[in-house]
Specification:
The structure is a single chain. This protein is of the alpha+beta class. It has a single domain, classed as Lipocalin, CATH 2.40.128. The chain has four helices and eight strands, in the order H-H-H-E-E-E-E-E-E-E-E-H. The protein has an eight-stranded antiparallel β-barrel with strand order 1-2-3-4-5-6-7-8. A hairpin with a 6-residue loop joins strand 7 and strand 8. The protein is globular and about 30 Å long.
């Protein structure tokens, strides 16, 4: 929810791209996951604004994401639709680049910057909360 609040705040400042519309759309339920290809499959951790974000992307295009900031934490589902990551609250992030050493994403809302996520199969770069939660998640 906090991640959604951050995206909402960024969109409200810009006045153009509004994440509220996406959040109200229920897009996540309707999104069909697509296999992202081997380069994107895996666990990635990096900073997205004030949040430490960890993504786990599966071969079938589904996965989990976890974020932490200021003692606020959450684990939710994600889907890759062939162009972007759709988060459980129906907000989105575009894939900017995929390399063996980095997954670069950008929130699809105004005033966002690229977030560089690094491979993190052992969850050593993830927040303590996310490392524990993602190891325990199905």
């Amino acid at each position: 929810m906090r991640f959604g609040a951050l995206v909402l705040f960024a969109g409200a400042l810009g006045g153009c791209s509004n994440p509220v519309d996406d959040m109200l759309s229920g897009r996540f339920s309707e999104t069909r996951a697509v296999s992202p290809g081997d380069a994107m499959v895996g666990t990635w951790t990096g900073s997205m604004s004030a949040y430490l974000l960890t993504l786990k992307i599966n071969e079938d295009g589904t996965g989990l994401y976890c974020y932490s900031w200021n003692e606020k934490h959450a684990v939710n589902r994600l889907k890759y639709d062939g162009e972007r990551i759709v988060f459980q609250e129906s907000t989105t992030a575009s894939i900017r680049d995929v390399r063996p050493d980095a997954l670069v994403i950008r929130s699809d809302y105004t005033f966002s910057k690229d977030a560089i996520l690094r491979p993190d199969e052992g969850l050593v770069k993830a927040s303590p909360y996310c490392a524990k939660a993602m190891k325990e998640a199905p």
